[in-house]
Amino acid sequence: xxxxxxxxxxxxxxxxxxxxxxxxxxxxxxxxxxxxxxxxxxxxxxxxxxxxxxxxxxxxxxxxxxxxxxxxxxxxxxxxxxxxxxxxxxxxxxxxxxxxxxxxxxxxxxxxxxxxxxxxxxxxxxxxxxxxxxxxxxxxxxxxxxxxxxxxxxxxxxxxxxxxxxxxxxxxxxxxxxxxxxxxxxxxxxxxxxxxxxxxxxxxxxxxxxxxxxxxxxxxxxxxxxxxxxxxxxxxxxxxxxxxxxxxxxxxxxxxxxxxxxxxxxxxxxxxxxxxxxxxxxxxxxxxxxxxxxxxxxxxxxxxxxxxxxxxxxxxxxxxxxxxxxxxxxxxxxxxxxxxxxxxxxxxxxxxxxxxxxxxxxxxxxxxxxxxxxxxxxxxxxx
Length: 383
Prior knowledge:
By secondary structure, this protein is of the alpha+beta class. Helices cover 53% and strands 16% of the residues. The protein is globular.
């Protein structure tokens, strides 16, 4: 790893251990990000990783953003969701698809203090992401958006929403919508099992007015924009799950080396050692695949052809393998710690709860397997 990448990873790891770790239990209990931590994430540059220096960002790479997500997830996967969504799904979409005016208008805000949220999912648009009921109807030179978005990560803290709506029978457009827009409201957050710091909420849009220059990349490009974002997003989630798995393994390893039974550390017993060794091997494999996928998509998703198919396949594989490694690592951590593994102060149980969502969001395991199988068995044919 180049020295610059190592220095960045070490910087993020130190921040996570020193600044995020003391707040984990409180955020999990309250089910929301700590306001002071949000400000610290911006001040540390973790919310502007790829944003060019001229817009107030760090001017780093997609791989640096992936590394940041992984390192934060070692301490708190929920905070890593906020970092991931903001950097990869929202800021990344503007970097890739925004015109010059949109970049100048929104990137400095997203680099400075305004958190971004990605609003695609709906009640009947989950795995079938484009079965959208939210519509944007023409209104003079702009539109009015009406609908309800579900499972919107970062909604509670966001100041800017990337909202996908139908602008015609076969047309989807992505709009950049400010939180204070008339007719926009954030509903009560979901009381969810895991990733509670990144608690999701519904977004209600009741005739929200938007101008023509708020259509990211122009009208009718929303479906392509979302597909590109989700390909990159799956790599980000893979990194988050690798970090989660590593965090669970770290917790378990510390515990079993200190815990004594029958006159010796429980780490000396094969029944404890071997499952943790399996986790270490699986995490290493998941990490390698994650960064292989990150390298493939680093330049942005290619429109069409074998290169795009390869990016989609690798992203799906990375997210699937990482989600399986995370679940197994979390289960083994709880098992290795016995009854104490179920107690909140040891954090294994939190990794256990957080790990489950990894098989669901950014493509369920079955959706990912279908994408992988389609490319394997019917190359070139859409999944």
